[in-house]
Design goal:
It is a single chain. It contains 27 helices and 27 strands. By secondary structure, it is α+β, with helices and mostly antiparallel strands. Among the domains are: about 100 residues, Alpha-Beta Plaits (2-Layer Sandwich); about 120 residues; about 90 residues, Calcium-transporting ATPase, cytoplasmic transduction domain A, CATH 2.70.150; about 100 residues, Calcium-transporting ATPase, cytoplasmic domain N (3-Layer(aba) Sandwich). The strands form 5 sheets. A 7-stranded mixed sheet has the order 15-27-26-25-16-23-24, with helices on both faces. It has a 6-stranded antiparallel sheet with strand order 7-6-8-14-9-12, with no helix packed on it. It is elongated and about 120 Å long.
Length: about 725
């Protein structure tokens, strides 16, 4: 294939020392080694199964997963890094092309393959059009009227056009088939190549012997429609990768780096932690880092899905891929390009694509049986028609060729994973990231949703509640500014006026703060510490304040509901999903939050183990439970759920244990992701049904001789196109 020829050259020198140069320590386990390879020549789930199965059979291999969409093979193993060469040789022995995976080389390979397939398609289309014009005369005129000499002339002209075209444009199939056959294996291109060869060979034999069974038109049209299907599949995979490519593009290009008082331009991948990067207004931030100088607004939609600009000031952490809107910023890089949040998100998307859901596994098993079954069917058809029914061997051969063509499992083996890839792409644009390939399949079937409170239903940040006296507020904020306690920080940040002079500040563990504010002795903290004799008037978190020994009204704090929490719960209820709130907070607070959000049932003051027990009891009763909570702290209950989702800050996203992670201060992604999951599952079932129906109808028709090779090629290509277009409905209607 052309990608093997065009992408090996840039790394030819590096490969002289072997693939070991491309091995790196595993990010999952530093004791293991990791290698990313670009594999070419994969066309179906059977190819993936063969490669993964062979590599995973090695006892030193801990992980081998091939992502069909970009052709990226990720391998992790224990032992010597020199084993990388052995892995590459194993893949080549299976009949596939292989070279180190590099983004630029992958782009070059895509461009080369696109150009190559278009060239083959153009030649095949030219030949098919001309041969069909020649064949038209043969179809509409009987042999006596045309004359034998004219008929033979048209057959020879067709042969002169068809044979070079098939040799040239059939290369994608012939090369792939030959590469696996010489290694003692098969793939779906073997029967396709066999069909092309038999149809052309038989037609040439008939032309040489002045026979009547000449089917150059069918052979060329077969190749043309196969190439149309191959090219559409290639374009579909490329389109499905567009979301990840949009992210990856932000990690390409150059950055303005400040060093020794001078500015120099460096490729983004050469920027190292500690370097100072200048980002002008209107430019994308190219690195993860900390703002050292400047103040601006950022468009973070590429990372979080949030459309509202966010403020950026000195000391704030910013991420590669965000757009600087207003003013220049100086940023201190904190990570290499390959370790940025954006790079981690891309890895999450690839990880999700690599999962094997139930219907994908069924398709893989079907593809595994394809080659032996189709060869057996074609042979049976030939024997039946020639030896049993007494048909001419040419007619029997034609029917066998038709069976080889029409049973191609493209629709079954390829179109179903497109739904999964497209769903990941749609969700990524909303700030939702899948960490498990079958997460959507599990999410689509839920009938109960359990929620954690703090940071999930609520913002997770305490805010001052109610109306307070302005003077008391000023005194409290002045003293609170000297503490790192969450309530003290919330109190200090809630006051926008001028703070009073504060001296002699002391923090008493378990009690609170004490100091002189504007010359007066002030205490801030627990009720007993501040001298209160009455009970709090509200069931909320609070701090007391005493000025010159006299308690003043308490300051109450609430963790406000997310703006869309109630609407999200309402949507889930309309879909028949039971909701419950599980929290370790006090019952009064939990019940209030549940009531405000519209949640049906609430359980308070639970430990993580007790949450786990509640969930297991629900599952024992037959519920399929979605757990939405803190993927960092509630690992046990998240792991026990049928599927889990977690709101996550950008810094936490790769450490989160949830199956699905969403960013931003919204809860709406829960309902949106569930809707996408249901639609994706419906489309998978539709595609699976379409593929099965096609084979149940098409194979018997071909076996009975009702279909010609040309019609078989059209039907096979249309079946794949049909399920691919059906899958794309998910993207267009999202």
């Amino acid at each position: 294939m052309p990608q093997q020829q065009n992408t090996k050259q840039p790394i030819q020198n590096a490969l002289q020392t072997g693939y070991t140069a491309f091995v790196r320590p595993s990010t999952e386990n530093p004791a293991e080694h990791e290698l990313s390879l670009k594999v070419t020549g994969i066309h179906c789930a059977n190819c993936i199964r063969k490669i993964e199965g062979t590599l995973n059979d090695d006892t030193q291999t801990t992980h081998a997963r091939l992502n069909f969409t970009p052709g990226r093979l990720a391998i992790r193993w224990q032992g010597s890094p020199q084993k990388a060469d052995q892995y590459a040789q194993t893949i080549e022995n299976l009949g596939f092309g292989v070279h180190p995976f590099r983004e630029q080389l992958a782009d070059n390979a895509d461009t080369a393959e696109n150009r190559f397939l278009l060239l083959c398609l153009g030649v095949a289309g030219f030949a098919a059009g001309n041969i069909m014009l020649l064949s038209l005369g043969l179809w509409i005129t009987d042999a006596n009227s045309m004359g034998m000499a004219t008929r033979e002339f048209l057959h020879w002209v067709s042969a002169l056009i068809a044979i070079p075209a098939i040799v040239f444009s059939g290369r994608p199939f012939f090369r792939s088939a030959w590469s696996v056959l010489k290694k003692g294996h098969t793939n779906m291109d073997v029967p396709i190549s066999l069909a092309l060869t038999l149809a052309t060979g038989m037609s040439l034999f008939e032309t040489l012997t002045q026979g009547e069974h000449v089917y150059f038109d069918s052979a060329v049209m077969l190749m043309f429609f196969l190439l149309v299907g191959r090219y559409l599949d290639f374009r579909a995979k490329r389109q499905a990768r567009s979301a990840a490519n949009a992210l990856a593009s932000a990690l390409k290009g150059f950055a303005q780096v400040l060093g020794n008082g001078q500015t120099k331009t460096l490729p983004i991948e050469q920027v190292t932690p500690g370097m100072m990067v200048l980002v002008a207004a209107g430019e994308k931030i190219s690195v993860d880092g900390e703002v050292i100088e400047g103040q601006s607004s950022l468009d973070t939609s590429l990372i979080t899905g949030e459309t509202m600009p966010t403020a950026a000031a000195k000391g704030q952490h910013v991420f590669a891929g965000t757009l600087n809107l207003d003013a220049p910023l100086k940023i201190k890089a904190t990570a290499l390009a390959e370790n940025t949040l954006l790079a981690d998100i891309i890895k999450l998307m690839e990880q999700a694509e690599q999962g094997h859901a139930k219907y994908v596994r069924l398709a893989e098993r079907a593809a595994k049986l394809y080659t032996p079954v189709v060869h057996s069917l074609a042979l049976a058809a030939f024997v039946l028609w020639w030896l049993v029914l007494g048909a001419a061997w040419q007619q029997a051969m034609l029917i066998a060729v038709t069976v080889l063509i029409i049973t191609c499992p493209c629709a079954l083996g390829l179109a179903i994973p497109v739904v999964q890839v497209l769903a990941s792409s749609v969700l990524m644009r909303k700030g939702v990231y899948l960490k498990s390939g079958d997460a959507l399949e599990r999410l689509a079937s839920i009938d109960a949703a359990y929620f954690d409170k703090t940071g999930t239903l609520t913002l997770g940040i305490p805010s001052l509640h109610g109306t307070v006296d302005a003077t008391h507020h000023q005194y409290a904020a002045s003293l609170a500014a000297h503490s790192h306690h969450p309530l003290a920080k919330a109190l200090a940040s809630s006051y926008s006026g001028k703070l009073l002079k504060t001296t002699d500040v002391k923090e008493h563990a378990g009690k609170g703060l004490e100091g002189k504010v504007n010359g007066k002795k002030v205490r801030l903290g627990r009720d007993t510490w501040c001298g209160y004799q009455d009970e709090p008037t509200e069931a909320l978190a609070h701090v007391g304040l005493s000025i010159s020994g006299k308690p003043v009204p308490r300051f109450y704090f609430a963790d406000d509901l997310k703006a869309d929490a109630a609407k999200t719960i309402e949507v889930l209820h309309k879909r028949g999903i039971k909701t419950m709130l599980l929290s370790g907070d006090k019952a009064a607070v939990v019940n209030t939050v549940a009531h405000d959000a519209g949640i049906e049932e609430a359980k308070a003051e639970l430990t993580p183990i007790e949450k786990h027990d509640v969930l297991e009891k629900a599952q024992a009763s037959g519920y399929r439970v979605l757990m939405v909570g803190d993927g960092l702290n509630d690992a046990a209950v998240m792991a026990a759920a049928n599927v889990s989702m977690a709101p996550s800050t950008a810094l936490e996203i790769t450490q989160n244990t949830a199956d699905i992670v969403f960013t931003g201060n919204r809860l709406q992604p829960v309902a949106h992701t569930h809707r996408i999951a249901q639609r994706a599952q419906a489309l998978v079932k539709q595609n699976f049904g379409l593929a099965i129906c096609y084979n149940f109808i098409a194979v018997p028709l071909a076996f009975m001789g009702f279909v010609t090779p040309m019609v078989a090629a059209i039907a096979m290509s249309l079946s794949s196109l049909c399920v691919i277009l059906n899958a794309f409905r998910l993207k267009f209607n999202a």
